[in-house]
Design a protein that fits this description.
By secondary structure, this protein is of the alpha/beta class. The protein has 19 helices and 25 strands. The protein folds into 4 domains: 10-165, Four Helix Bundle (Hemerythrin (Met), subunit A), CATH 1.20.120; 190-427, paralog of FGE (formylglycine-generating enzyme); 449-465 and 621-704, no CATH class; 475-620 and 706-739, 3-Layer(aba) Sandwich (Rossmann fold), CATH 3.40.50.150.
Length: 740
């Protein structure tokens, strides 16, 4: 009697499963040995620090895993290669007995490397026999063992890089031509996510580690992620701005670590007369400016995010953003052996997988409903859920196919020998005109910091705007009248750089007062695009300009001019000239200037011109008087911010308990405005209570002062060149023309 189709098919399916499992096992195991082809026997025996292990130990430990968890329990005729290896190559499994201490693994001169390879061959032979017998029954443990070995492939390269970095010879793991410099990836742009009730965690039949589940619901506030990783050039700007010397940027434990370890740059960076260089798997190389920064600790990532006016994403935000993206990127198989620059002009999120592991602000802990597996294998992840931070995405030495959106990597916050970088995140922008929630959030955030601060943008309610207009008429306040006089004198020369029919794009237009001087000198301007966050102010200004210049097309854009992505359709293919008067750019920190100018270049396009007003460095007496006038109008302007908090956020600030202070910070080249507490006091605002000590300040505004040459260098970092300058007599002010 002939067998049924199902009966005949079953052995064929079983054989196919056996063959597929055996092939996967061989592929991963051979990849581990292939990684040692670049290494000498001496390389594979050495260990550079307690956190690292010799390559020989990695090769033996991954083999011990298969022997211990699969062969000994499941293959009846299997005989262990060497019973002492159970002690030598156990990593951290308490249930399986004592082990060689991790910091002392480098003392294992025996067994020899040849004996470790013989051990691998012995276990491989046993695994081949086991898979022929029971490929289905061992599938889960086989998947875990192969994923475990892939983790150690990454660890091998991490540990080798650290080992080689200790050598004065700076050897290369994979000698090759210089790492590709890569093109400028363009400014990092925020990608918005609505948040809401979402699910995270692994789901489905494919393999995942136990710490990736159970799948569960979390609620996310609206948030934004940068579309790419932070680059080396951006990190250099952080360093140049004193990032490693400013305690206000750092978490307490992070600052203590910086002081104790003497950090002043990422791990492996070395300063040379020709500039910074970094130790890589390809040897000591010049810093690739557009490649992602790597080998930074959680503390460094968090400090940079604070400096950049951002934060790190939570792991739930990261996973939610990555959930539908393919896990493709610059992984080990690319042969790059280092993070690569991402091309510009790509919309949406970039570099979510590969290049560098991305720090999140989430502590590593169990998901709701997590339970470790029974037995020793349950020690794989659960026992480490304390004192560590989560990273996501994979890196340039992660094996291809090893990661997924739900994958949770974890390291201690001070560690940085892994390929770790960062992506910035922000709370989603809520317009100030909406419901005040952004105002409240910024007040709570700013007054909760060790050094209290409030964003200067909240000065300009109706009363604040009126006070500022009064400030501009004060005899001490030179910027407005000096700039207006300069514009009136030089507008014809500036207008010569505005082509007929061009689009004039004003950033933060307000009432467009100064724009009229330029429009009068350039009557052939085709379209005027004022950008402002306030719809009411923008509508009023646009209506007035449209009425007074009937031949000019007006296309207002309601947006935050620092993050605007697209111009109105009326601009079309016209030539574009940006206009940013008023020295408002002085409210940005130097790196924020670079970020803003990069975004403006993207918005305006190659070949565009950009007229920017900058207040120039001058004597301290003139500067302080401009921000602390004899009539006290600037003091009233500063204190009005507290009055606004009282009015809009149910605050109880006693304005008489604070005083205005203006300070010239010569080291930072900026004027600072502060509100100083006259006594120890507690204040309630925005639903929270804040305590002040006598003399403690709220930092309310920075106004950076520039030299033209210094500003030109910042502009160059953002892809602009200084083409022309117009400068007033003392008190000096300048308008510069930049060219993309």
């Amino acid at each position: 009697m002939a067998p049924s189709d199902e009966t005949a098919a079953a052995p064929a399916l079983h054989r196919a499963a056996q063959a597929e499992a055996a092939a996967r096992y061989r592929r991963v195991r051979e990849a581990s040995l292939a990684m040692t082809a670049h290494l000498s026997a001496e390389d594979q025996l050495a260990q550079s620090m307690p956190d690292a292990s010799p390559t020989k130990w990695h090769l033996a430990h991954t083999t011990w895993f298969f022997e211990t968890f699969l062969l000994i329990p499941r293959l009846a005729d299997y005989r262990p290669f060497n019973p002492s290896f159970a002690y030598l190559f156990n990593s951290y499994y308490e249930a399986l007995g004592p082990r060689q201490p991790r910091p002392q693994r480098g003392l294992l001169t025996r067994p020899s490397l040849d004996e470790v390879k013989a051990y691998r061959a012995h276990v491989d032979d046993g695994m081949a026999r086991l898979l022929r017998q029971d490929a289905y029954g061992v599938a889960d443990l086989l998947d875990l063992g192969l994923a475990h070995e892939e983790q150690h492939q990454e660890l091998i390269l991490m540990d080798i890089l650290h080992l080689f970095s200790q050598s004065p010879l700076k050897p290369a793991y994979a000698p090759a031509p210089a790492l590709p410099v890569g093109a400028d990836p363009g400014p990092a742009r925020p990608v918005d996510f609505a948040g809401g009730l979402v699910e995270i965690g692994h789901s489905g039949a494919n393999f995942a580690f136990d710490n990736e589940g159970p799948r569960h619901k979390v609620y996310l506030q609206p948030y934004r992620l940068a579309d790419r990783l932070v680059t080396n050039s951006e990190w250099l700007a952080f360093m140049a701005d004193g990032g490693y010397a400013r305690p206000e940027l750092w978490l307490s434990e992070g600052w203590a670590t910086v002081q104790a370890e003497g950090w002043n740059a990422p791990l492996y960076w070395q300063e040379a007369p020709s500039g910074w260089r970094a130790m890589t798997l390809q040897g000591l190389r010049a810093i690739a400016p557009h490649a992602p920064v790597t080998h930074i600790s959680f503390y460094e990532a968090d400090a940079y995010a604070t400096w950049a006016g951002a934060r790190l994403p939570t792991e739930a935000e990261w996973e939610h953003a990555a959930r539908d993206l393919p896990a493709r990127g610059n992984f080990l198989g690319s042969g790059q052996f280092g993070p690569a620059a991402t091309p510009a002009g790509v919309s949406g999120l970039r570099q979510m997988f590969g290049d560098t592991w991305e720090w999140t602000r989430s502590a590593y802990g169990p998901y709701p409903g997590f339970h470790p597996a029974d037995g020793a294998v349950g020690e794989y992840n659960g026992k480490f859920m304390i004192g560590q931070m989560v990273l996501r995405g994979g890196c340039c030495v992660t094996p291809q196919g090893h990661t997924r959106a739900s994958y949770r990597n974890f390291f201690q916050p001070q560690q940085r020998w892994m390929f770790s970088g960062l992506r910035l995140a922000w709370d989603a922008v809520v317009r100030v005109e909406d419901d005040g929630s952004a105002f409240a959030a910024d007040v709570r955030r700013g007054l909760s910091q060790g050094r209290k601060e409030l964003p200067a943008k909240y000065f300009y309610d109706a009363e604040g705007s009126a006070l500022f207009e009064a400030i501009t008429d004060l005899p001490e306040y030179y910027p407005t009248r000096t700039e207006v006089a300069l514009l009136r004198e030089t507008a014809p020369a500036m207008a010569a750089h505005i082509p007929a029919g061009a689009a004039l794009v004003e950033f933060g237009s307000g009432a467009s007062t100064k724009t009229r001087i330029l429009l009068d000198a350039a009557p052939r301007t085709g379209v005027y695009v004022p950008i402002d966050i306030s719809r009411s102010a923008l509508d009023a200004a646009a209506e007035a300009i449209g009425r007074d210049y009937p031949g000019l097309e007006v296309a207002p854009l309601v947006d935050d001019f620092t993050t605007a992505l697209d111009l109105p359709g009326e601009v079309g293919e016209r030539p574009r000239v940006g206009f940013f008067p008023g020295s408002t750019i002085g409210n940005f920190r130097p790196q924020e200037v670079v970020v803003f100018l990069s975004a403006a270049k993207h918005l305006l396009g190659e070949g565009a011109g950009f007229l920017v007003g900058i207040d120039l460095v001058k004597d301290a007496e003139t500067l302080v008087a401009a921000y602390d006038d004899a009539q006290g109008v600037t003091a009233a302007f500063n204190l009005n911010l507290l009055a606004r908090i009282n009015r809009e956020l149910e605050g109880d600030f006693d304005l008489s308990a604070f005083e205005h202070r203006a300070v010239w910070n010569a080291e930072e080249s900026r004027m600072e405005m502060h509100l100083v507490s006259r006594s120890d006091q507690s204040v309630r605002a925005a639903g929270a209570t804040f305590r002040f000590k006598t003399g403690e300040t709220i930092h309310t505004e920075n106004s950076y002062k520039f030299t033209v040459d210094g500003f030109a260098k910042l502009a160059e970092q953002a892809g602009w060149k200084l083409e022309r300058r117009w400068e007033s007599p003392a008190p000096s002010f300048a308008v510069v023309l930049l060219r993309a």
